Amino acid sequence: MRSKDFAWSLMAAAAAAGSLSFAERARGADYDYGPAPGFASAPPQALPQDKVEFASNWYIRGDLAYAAETYPKLSFDSTFSEPPPILNTFSAGAGFGYKVNNWLRTDLVLDYRSPVHAAGIGGQACTLVLPDAATGQLGYTPETCAGHFNTEIHRWDLLANGYFDLGTWSGFTPYVGAGAGVSWARTKQSVYWTYGDDLPCQTSCGFPSSSGNTYFGYFDRSQSRMDYQFAWAAMAGLAIAMTEHAQLDVGYRFLDLGNVSGLSAVTGAPVTQRVFVNEVRAGVRYMID
Questions:
Q1: Among 153, 169, 214, 283, which is 20 to 30 Å from 124 by CA?
Q2: Is 101 helix (H, G, I), strand (E, B) or coil?
Q3: Average of pLDDT values for 19-25?
């Protein structure tokens, strides 16, 4: 009896062990197929992604400048041999750029230059050809023609520029650069002539000469036009770090803005002068990233 009881005990223990093993496998299979009904599973964790900086290395800029420019004579002056006048002007610009690396950068800048206004009245000695009241023959009478001259010019220029930064020392970065683009000007001008009694000056009004009287036609003239010219620039300056993203930019720039056309204040005839600009600029560059 004892041996039989022992055998039954062994069989019972084996059956219990098998049941436990089957339950463990079943429970593991349940986890493989998801949570039990009525229980929500934890959401899967997203894999970390690299940050994309869309504005990296891009910057915006704004500038003000004081300039000295060569320009055609815009006031009444009969001396042709004098050099063209120097005009003191101002400009304001805005643009955006890209910093390629610590040495190279480029930008596109639009500048609006202060309008040029000029007006004048002057006198020119001339000769009137008038018939004699008694004989009817033509005679020559000295007279003075007064020239009334007025002009207004608005200018813009758009340049693409490249710069070479020469290294940074304690927040100071010297640079050199060059640019090319287009300049354009909207010109409105008028010139008209009158005698001393405000009557229109006729075509017989001219400059006397040693060989006789040479006559010029002082016709009234006016024009309104838009001129486009190729422009280029060379510059050098210094960038000074103000904050992590902002720099103060000061420098010198030479520009060739091409030709500007107008009316002579002496004869009203068309005149053309190439415009050269020497300017001192100051502005701020701000990195967007």
A1: 153
A2: coil
A3: 50
* Burial label, 274 (beta-carbon count in 10 A; 0-12, 13-18, 19+): middle
Is the model's pTM score more than 0.85? no
- The CB density around residue 287, as the number of other CB atoms within 10 Å, is 17
CA gap 166, 188 in Å, rounded: 44
Q: In whole angstroms, what is the distance from residue 221 CA to residue 229 CA?
A: 24
- Eight-class DSSP state of 237: E
35 in helix, strand or coil? Answer: coil
Region of 212 please: left (phi>0), alpha (psi -120 to 50) or beta. Answer: left
Q: How many CB atoms lie within 10 A of CB 111?
A: 26
Question: What 3-state class would DSSP assign to 5?
Answer: helix
- Length of the chain, in residues: 289
CATH number of 58-287: 2.40.160.20
Q: What is the per-residue pLDDT across 165-205, written as a single tens digit (0 to 9) for each?
A: 999 999 999 999 999 999 999 988 887 777 666 667 654 44
For the chain, give every domain's residue range.
58-287
Question: Strand (E) positions, the chain?
Answer: 58-70, 86-99, 104-131, 138-165, 172-194, 206-209, 212-215, 221-241, 246-263, 270-287
